[in-house]
Amino acid sequence: MADGGSARGMRGYFYALMTDRRHSPADVFLQGALWVLSLVYGAGVRILAGGYKKKFFFPYRADCKVISIGNITVGGTGKTPASLLIAKLLEAQGRRVAVLIRGYGADEYLMLQEELPECAILSGSDRITNARRAFYDFGADTVILDDGFQHWKIHRDLDIVLLDATNPFGNYRLLPRGILREPPQELTRADIIMLTKVDSPAARCDEAYGVIARLGKEHEVVEAVYRPLELYEIALSIHPGAVKSKGGKPVGLRSIHGKRIALMASIGNPGYFRQNLERLGAVVDMEFIFMDHYDYRSSDLYRIERECRAVGIETIVVTKKDAVKIARLALRERLAVPILVLDVAFTIVKNRKVLDEGLSRLYSR
Q1: Contact (CB, 8 A) for 177 and 170
Q2: CB 3.0–4.6 Å: which of 3, 64, 281, 302 could bond 257 by disulfide?
Q3: What residues contact residue 214 under an 8 Å CB cut-off, 6+ apart?
């Protein structure tokens, strides 16, 4: 079941065109038009990237170390969880870290703020100004650029690029005909490649490694998964902003085993979220999928509650990214159907040494 209004409907339609899931004559005509636009887009990318490579343009060099966490596709590869992981690793080493996000939605900012209370989280499209603020106003010795691989205006000391193993390159076409922001060969710029969601039944690891090996980058790959940690109740309030999404009552991962549940999410790849729930033994009977970064309203929750109760579903499960927004809604009355949050850990499961050595080299220069 899809939600989130006509905007998501149009977005879903064009995503289907970009991923070759539509085949009517009208769709083929539109795909041709998108292909033409992709040629224009690709030319622009090559001109911009080439200008920096050939020293026609010069990137801004921050007064602190800069780590980019990015990707070469649109969609949910896990950049924000990866940024969280890197920030926590560096804070544990005594580094003063700031995270710079573009500010597409409140969810990423709120989640980072909750998870990194001692870290400066700066939101906005002007990354240069925010990099200066991070150093001069907050004393950061390291800046993490969330979604920064295509941000050539800032020099990076370490480029980490994420690939979603379930759909690493789409149909190998550039935007808007495909999902690629850049051609796969641009992975040669990456210092570390993180292949995420490798535990998914839909993972296409062989395909990803085939491309990576042809580029000579196979020794710079780490693999990562989202490992379920806990399920907890979200404490909804009739007062806006009264609670955070963290700290609710833990109910245990086995609490949904064999239980009919509804999934609610506004993330880039809800399919992987569903797979994690099903691996915990849940029976996902209903899905309420919203466009990425969707700002929930209390009316959404009441409507979903009614639909769940109508078919006898007594539990709704959301991601932590969704929970930080839902927890701040002002409700007129309590929900009869509890909302549980699946807490996961972004975990390196293979070649952790590659990441550790990359971070170590960063501070030995």
Answers
A1: no
A2: 281
A3: none
Residues 167, 205: Cα–Cα separation, whole Å: 9
With the C-alpha atoms ordered 225, 230, 231, 232, is the resulting torsion angle positive or negative? Answer: negative
Rounded to the nearest angstrom, the gap between the alpha carbon of residue 251 and the centroid of all alpha carbons in its chain is: 26
Q: Which amino acid is at 215?
A: L
**Read out DSSP for 88-101?**
HHHHHTT--EEEEE
Query: pLDDT confidence of 12, banded at 50, 70, 90?
Result: confident
Residue 105 CB contacts under 8 Å (≥ 6 apart), including other chains: 292, 293, 294, 295
At residue 200, φ and ψ (nearest 5 deg) are -75, 140
**Residue 261, both tokens:** 């549940």
- Both tokens assigned to 247: 């700290």
- Tell me the pLDDT tens digit for each residue of 194-230: 999 999 999 999 999 999 999 999 999 999 999 999 9
Token output for 21: 């899931």
Q: Tokens 């150093």 map to which residue? A: 135
User: Contacts from 277-285 at CB under 8 Å and sequence distance 24+?
Assistant: 277/317, 277/342, 279/228, 280/228, 280/253, 280/254, 280/256, 281/254, 281/256, 281/257, 282/256, 282/257, 282/258, 282/317, 283/258, 283/259, 285/260, 285/261, 285/311, 285/313
Residues 6+ apart with CB under 8 A from 356: none
pLDDT score for 238: 59
The angle that helices 79-92 and 106-115 make with each other, rounded to 10 degrees, is 20
Percent helix, strand, coil in the chain, to 5, is 40, 25, 40
* Gyration radius of the chain's alpha carbons: 21
d(CA 36, CA 321): 36
Q: How far apart are CA 87 and CA 346, in angstroms?
A: 12
For the cut 80, the answer to whether the pLDDT of residue 69 exceeds it is yes
Integer Cα distance of 19 and 92 in angstroms: 41
* Strands of the sheet with 97-101, listed across from one edge: 120-123, 97-101, 142-146, 65-71, 158-164, 192-196, 221-233, 339-350, 316-319, 260-265, 283-289
Q: Where are the domains of the chain?
A: 65-164+185-226+348-362, 227-345
The CATH classification number of 65-164+185-226+348-362 equals: 3.40.50.300
